[in-house]
């Protein structure tokens, strides 16, 4: 029996965040199988045919998996509490703007968040949305993301350490987490060092195109026939 083929995580290559329903597309298994390689504070639970992972503080499920998770999904933190945690008063506008950030796919722009919020508050100005997003960034609730537009115009409600896949066709920015890759990068800089610079964190921005058809895995040789 080939465990790899029976592993719904590697087969589906798509994970759904149970907190906000975002989709994460992976081209190869993102998690090492040895728990010792998981960074402190991140817990991973592996099963033979299904995988449930607490990764980057979020709970992921394979999209097409027909299994019941062994561990219950954590209850998402209510938006007013998220705001209060960083010292921001939970006004209706702030809650709606944060909701837009979490709901809109692909790391939205301020304009997209504004459009989302005007469905409920038609009078809100784009300037207010910009100012609110800036206050979220300053409070550490949100971060800016570099994109093809050349500046940090896009926003990310996930401030945990992760990488980004940027699709040049759809302009989507897709979150990508891989503790094995993180360990490689950390080891590299620990060994090689950087002149006159102490790295604190890192985030890769990988540019490419989303592929929808079947792909050859990087660790599998082409079949002979
Ligand atoms: Zn992100």
TrEMBL record:
Keywords: DNA-binding, Metal-binding, Repressor, Transcription, Transcription regulation, Zinc. Binds 1 zinc ion per subunit. Its cofactor is Zn(2+). GO terms for biological process: negative regulation of DNA-templated transcription; regulation of secondary metabolite biosynthetic process. SUPFAM superfamilies: Winged helix' DNA-binding domain. Transmembrane segments: none annotated. Zn(2+) binds at residue 167. GO terms for molecular function: DNA-binding transcription factor activity; transcription cis-regulatory region binding; zinc ion binding. CDD domains: Fur_like (cd07153). This is Transcriptional repressor. It comes from Hymenobacter rubripertinctus.
């Amino acid at each position: 029996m080939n465990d790899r083929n029976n592993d719904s995580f590697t087969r589906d290559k798509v994970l759904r965040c149970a907190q906000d329903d975002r989709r994460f597309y992976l081209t190869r298994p993102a998690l090492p199988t040895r728990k010792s390689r998981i960074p402190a504070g991140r817990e991973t639970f592996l099963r033979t045919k299904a995988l449930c992972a607490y990764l980057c503080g979020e709970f992921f499920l394979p999209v097409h998996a027909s299994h019941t998770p062994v561990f219950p999904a954590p209850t998402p933190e209510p938006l007013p509490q998220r705001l209060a945690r960083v010292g921001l008063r939970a006004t209706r506008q702030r809650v709606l703007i944060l909701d837009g950030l979490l709901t809109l796919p692909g790391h939205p722009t301020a304009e997209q968040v504004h459009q989302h919020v005007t469905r409920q508050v038609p009078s809100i100005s784009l300037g207010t949305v910009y100012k609110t997003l800036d206050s979220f960034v300053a409070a550490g609730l949100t971060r800016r993301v570099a994109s093809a537009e050349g500046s940090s115009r896009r926003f990310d409600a996930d401030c945990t350490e992760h990488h980004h896949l940027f699709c040049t066709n759809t302009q989507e920015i897709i979150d990508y987490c891989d503790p094995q890759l993180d360990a490689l990068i950390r080891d590299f800089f620990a060994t090689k060092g950087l002149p006159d610079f102490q790295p604190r964190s890192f985030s890769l921005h990988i540019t490419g195109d989303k592929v929808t058809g079947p792909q050859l895995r990087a660790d599998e040789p082409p079949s002979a026939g």
